[in-house]
Design brief:
Layout: H1 2-13, H2 16-23, H3 29-47, H4 56-80, H5 83-90, H6 93-103, H7 111-127, H8 136-158, H9 164-187, H10 198-231, H11 234-247, H12 253-269
Keywords: Membrane, Transmembrane, Transmembrane helix
Subcellular location: Membrane
Family: Belongs to the EamA transporter family.
């Protein structure tokens, strides 16, 4: 059951890029971020009307990184990049965890981890080759959004965050409020969404945000960043699948190779360090 909960977040998040491409491309990414976060937070607070146990300064920092800044960067990236590319850049989270542990905690990775990190970096270079003509702002936004998630995940491992439903609700509510002045400044006053996009926004609010963020926060604390880094690989798989099958996106062979290298490096990174394939090893009775 814990792994089923953990899968909810990357599966639902992987649908974001196709949703934007098919139904929300005419809406401002800033106001889409508001419509995604604030209603989800209000809905969850109605379900669990409690004050948070985490101090307001730390809660505000999490709300800014996980919701306010993250949603803004995510939707700018989603509007500027193909879903397959955006999803794969988001899946570099384990690599960023490795770099932060090295730089901040002074935990130098072993040769295996260093080689896999370089392998993943090589995949990113293939994916972002100049002939791909990818939007540099979109690429920077996606990598920045993933870095914010990595920082906030480290903090939640150390802090006593209390009830995860309450934590998720307040993060979404506060983050949604933070997004309003930015959206107003960047895109003008809000316009009510048309009836044709209401089903898409309902999916964003309920499944893609409320359920997915609760599942991610709960799983990050209970399963740890190592396992969740592996589970996060489902995100680009869903994004690529929907982008190619539904949206009609196409990638050249070099980009497909880059995606494959990144996913392979992330998958190998999660293999147990003591795994040895030795057919001659004697099994003790």
């Amino acid at each position: 059951m814990p792994f089923v909960i953990a899968l909810l977040a990357p599966v639902f998040w992987g649908t974001t890029y196709a949703l934007v491409s098919l139904y929300l491309h005419d809406m401002s990414p800033y106001w889409v971020a508001v419509w995604r976060a604030l209603p989800a937070g209000i809905l969850m607070l109605m379900l669990r009307p409690r004050l948070p146990t985490l101090v307001w300064s730390k809660l505000g920092l999490l709300a800014f990184c996980n919701i306010g800044a993250f949603f803004t960067l995510l939707f700018i990236g989603a509007y500027r990049l193909p879903g397959a590319v955006a999803g794969t850049l988001g899946a570099t989270l384990p690599l960023i965890f490795l770099i932060l542990a090295w730089v901040i905690d002074k935990k130098r990775p072993g040769m295996k981890w260093l080689l896999l990190g370089l392998m993943g970096l090589g995949g990113v270079i293939l994916l972002l080759n100049p002939s791909a003509d990818l939007d540099p702002i979109g690429v920077l936004c996606m990598l920045s959004a993933t870095t914010l998630i990595a920082f906030s995940s480290r903090w939640m491992q150390k802090w006593d965050v209390g009830d995860f439903l309450v934590l998720t609700a307040w993060q979404l509510f506060l983050g949604g409020l933070m997004l309003i002045p930015l959206a107003w400044f960047m895109a003008g006053p809000p316009q009510l969404p048309g009836l044709t996009v209401v089903p898409s926004l309902l999916w964003l609010v309920i499944a893609n945000t409320a359920i997915a963020y609760w599942a991610w926060l709960w799983s990050m604390r209970n399963l740890g960043p190592e396992i969740m880094g592996m589970v996060a690989l489902v995100n680009p798989v869903v994004a690529v699948s929907l982008g190619v099958m539904i949206v009609g996106e196409t990638l050249d062979m070099r980009q497909w190779a880059g995606i494959g290298v990144i996913l392979l490096s992330l998958l190998l990174m999660k293999l147990p360090q003591n795994l040895r394939l030795n057919p001659f090893k004697k099994v003790q009775p």
